[in-house]
Amino acid sequence: MYNKFYIIRHGETEANADGEIRMCGSTDLDITHKSFWDAMYLSKKMKSADDDFKKVKNIYVSELNRTKQTAFALFLKENYTISPELNEINFGENEMSVKKYLPADILYKWERDPGGLVFKNGDSMKERAENTTKYIKGLMKENTEPFAVISSSTIIRLLIMQLMDVDIKEFHRITLPYLSIIEITYDTENIEKIYIKINI
């Protein structure tokens, strides 16, 4: 027997609306009005094309407003489960930095060795990847109907690498625009058997 869940990147925030890639991390930000309406349109489009999306009951979001607001726009309800495991990486002293202006040693590890990257006064990329994956696998075992997970770019890409059993140093090869939806179908009797489809 198979089940499906959706991993969705939150809508665009004002902090990134200028086109710069900022390390927003654990900073709590709202999505833009445009992104809210884009999410509502996406919801209508998904529900007309995917019967499983219409069946979603359990919704899991991070503690950050941008995921909660995206959840409401997509599903028009607020009875979601708030999970700190879905929070974006805490970039510590690099919070809100523009990516291209990161210190050279941080940028090098980000590109070449993310598993060894620990942000000063922030998170370890490897530990967060492992903890979030463990949490998601628990949800896969608990849920017997389609469910949705709404989180942020870095944590989603690390999660996908872990689920695919690919070294997380490759995570930056995945590009996830705002409101990207990753569909994951899995065998409920063997959750390691998964099929991934990325809609961008």
TL;DR?
The protein is of the alpha/beta class and 200 residues long. It has helices at 33-49, 51-54, 65-75, 104-112, 125-142, 153-163; strands at residues 2-9, 58-61, 81-82, 147-151, 181-187, 190-199. The protein is built from six helices and six strands.
Number of helical segments with 4 or more residues: 6
**Largest beta-sheet characterization:** 6 strands, mixed
- Lateral strand order in the biggest sheet: 3-2-4-1-5-6
Strand and helix order: EHHEHEHHEHEE
- By CATH, the architecture is named 3-Layer(aba) Sandwich
- Classification by helices and strands: alpha/beta
According to CATH, the fold-level topology is Rossmann fold
Per CATH, the class reads Alpha Beta
Note the overall shape: globular
End-to-end gap? 27 Å
The total domain count is 1
What ranges have pLDDT less than 50 throughout 5 or more consecutive residues?
none
Percent helix range = 25-40%
* Rg (C-alpha, Å): 16 Å
The CATH superfamily turns out to be: Phosphoglycerate mutase-like
In total, the number of strands is 6
Arithmetic mean of pLDDT:
94
The portion of residues forming beta strands comes to 15-25%
What distinguishing features does this structure have?
Rossmann fold, 200 residues, alpha/beta, single chain, 6 helices, globular, six-stranded mixed beta sheet
List the helices and strands and how they pair.
Elements: E1 2-9, H1 33-49, H2 51-54, E2 58-61, H3 65-75, E3 81-82, H4 104-112, H5 125-142, E4 147-151, H6 153-163, E5 181-187, E6 190-199
Parallel strand pairs: 1-4, 2-3, 2-4
Antiparallel strand pairs: 1-5, 5-6
Helix pairs in contact: 1-3, 5-6
